[in-house]
């Protein structure tokens, strides 16, 4: 191709220079077992994650949840870059430990469920 403006060939970026933007169609995040109180009492969230250069994984999702959905006492939901012990995580009804935990790459229309087993007395 020739640029009409300066009659030089247009340079096409090499495939390695192209960046694929990763976004997902809306998917569900559900919070139960009392943990929903940390999310303004909302149990079900339909979310569409913003585009980013790398595919979304659970690690990135947890940071996004912390910044965008978690309303109070993040220490009761998260510990470091993961969920706190006592928070069960299911991805499409399967234990996240079977799916790769923090490294699981989110897919369109995944259902991620967080269930708190922590109860006060």
Automatic annotation (TrEMBL):
GO CC annotation: cytosol
CDD domains recorded: Ubl_Urm1
First and last residue of the signal peptide: none
Any GO BP: tRNA thio-modification
PTM section of the record: C-terminal thiocarboxylation occurs in 2 steps, it is first acyl-adenylated (-COAMP) via the hesA/moeB/thiF part of MOCS3, then thiocarboxylated (-COSH) via the rhodanese domain of MOCS3.
Main location (coarse class): cytoplasm
UniProt keyword annotations, A-Z: Cytoplasm, Isopeptide bond, tRNA processing, Ubl conjugation pathway
Pfam annotation, one family: Urm1
InterPro entries from the UniProt entry: Beta-grasp_dom_sf, Mopterin_synth/thiamin_S_b, Urm1
Compartments (UniProt record): Cytoplasm
Pathway given in the UniProt record: tRNA modification; 5-methoxycarbonylmethyl-2-thiouridine-tRNA biosynthesis
Crosslink position(s): Glycyl lysine isopeptide (Gly-Lys) (interchain with K-? in acceptor proteins): 121
Its biological purpose: Acts as a sulfur carrier required for 2-thiolation of mcm(5)S(2)U at tRNA wobble positions of cytosolic tRNA(Lys), tRNA(Glu) and tRNA(Gln). Serves as sulfur donor in tRNA 2-thiolation reaction by being thiocarboxylated (-COSH) at its C-terminus by MOCS3. The sulfur is then transferred to tRNA to form 2-thiolation of mcm(5)S(2)U. Also acts as a ubiquitin-like protein (UBL) that is covalently conjugated via an isopeptide bond to lysine residues of target proteins.
Family: Belongs to the URM1 family.
Protein name in the entry: Ubiquitin-related modifier 1
Organism whose genome encodes this protein: Dromaius novaehollandiae (Emu)
